Amino acid sequence: MLRHWLLESLYRHGHSTKQITGGIMPKRTKKYNAARMKATELNNDIVDRLRLYAFLESQGLNWDGKAGTWDENNPRVGSAFENHKGHPTGAIKIRIMGHPDELPDMINDLCEAMQGYGYRVYQTSNETYANRKGIGHRAYLEGIRIND
């Protein structure tokens, strides 16, 4: 909390993010820069990225990545896990990792087990992807809850 107050105070007095943190702070992305500008228009000087985005969303604004703006006419999109009214959709996404020779059987076993718990996997990755380190591979599954 004290750290956020200090950063906000220094930023308010004209210090750049790089001066304040020595370049350790997260990147100032297009989304973040637009959020800071919009917050300034609304007389708010929040610097922390997550608090800033939460503030703008509480004002009825949503990020439009294509236009590069925070806009109240832009409906919230992008989550497979909730609908436009903020209610859960029952969607699930799973990453499974294991030995490349065992992974196809693991995926089948997991799909069968999930069906017993009321979920249906409707998509699996067509191939497995090697992990950056070690021998392991990973695959992705998508599904949905089929009973409530």
- Seen as an oligomer or otherwise, the chain set is single chain
Report the mean per-residue pLDDT as an integer.
80
Q: Note the main sheet.
A: 4 strands, antiparallel
State which percent range the strand residues make up. Answer: 15-25%
What distance separates the N and C termini? 41 Å
Compute the number of helices.
5
| Rg, Cα atoms, Å | 22 Å
Secondary structure class reads alpha+beta
The percent of residues in helical segments reads 25-40%
Order of helices and strands: HHHHEEEHEEE
Q: Work out the count of structural domains.
A: 2
Give the tally of β-strands. 6
- Taking pLDDT < 50 over at least 5 consecutive residues as the criterion, the unreliable ranges are none
Taken from the alpha-carbon principal axes, the silhouette is elongated
What this model shows, in words?
This protein has 148 residues and is an alpha+beta fold. The chain folds into two domains: 2-71, no CATH class; 91-145, no CATH class. Helix content is 35%, strand content 21%. The chain has five helices and six strands. It has helices at residues 2-12, 17-21, 30-41, 49-58, 103-116; strands spanning 62-64, 69-71, 91-98, 119-124, 129-130, 137-145. The strands form two sheets. Strands 3, 4, 5 and 6 form a four-stranded antiparallel β-sheet that branches. Strand 1 and strand 2 form a beta hairpin. Helix 3 packs across helix 4 (49-58). The chain is elongated, with a radius of gyration of 22 Å. The mean pLDDT is 80.
